[in-house]
Write a structure and sequence with these properties.
It is built from 5 helices and 6 strands, in the order βαβαββαααββ. By secondary structure, it is an alpha/beta fold. The protein has a 4-stranded parallel β-sheet, covered by helices on one side. Strands 3-4 form a two-stranded antiparallel sheet.
Amino acid sequence: MVDAGLKTYNAKKGEIDRKWYLVDASGVVLGKLATEIAKIIRGKNKPIFTPNVDCGDYVVVINAEKIKVSGKKLQDKKYYRHSGYIGNMKTETLGEKLKRKPEEVIRIAVKGMLPHNKLNRAVIKKLKVYKGSKHPHEAQKPEKLDI
């Protein structure tokens, strides 16, 4: 016997209210930062969360070069990329990648914590990562978020 008054709610695209959040990555551990950001851009912090609908908020991350990692990850953790040509696999440690492109380190960590499906591409676009403390999203009036 199912009660007719209790129905499952599904969020629709038009009724989603998106907010902007500002996260300062200074001194925050990379994994903790990535999990919190993944929750917010996916929309799991909202009561209207629907897994097959993009109902998340925008997140602006500043001071990406000042993240912390535990252990010897700066030397041991490696990032790989391949152009598709024979013998053209490039390897880079976390320390080298932080010096060259610190924004990419956070983006890769968050992307790995999102589900690997078609919705992933739409969700990851709501993440904006910047090296320093300046960002071009002042007009959106992002709320400060403590992690």
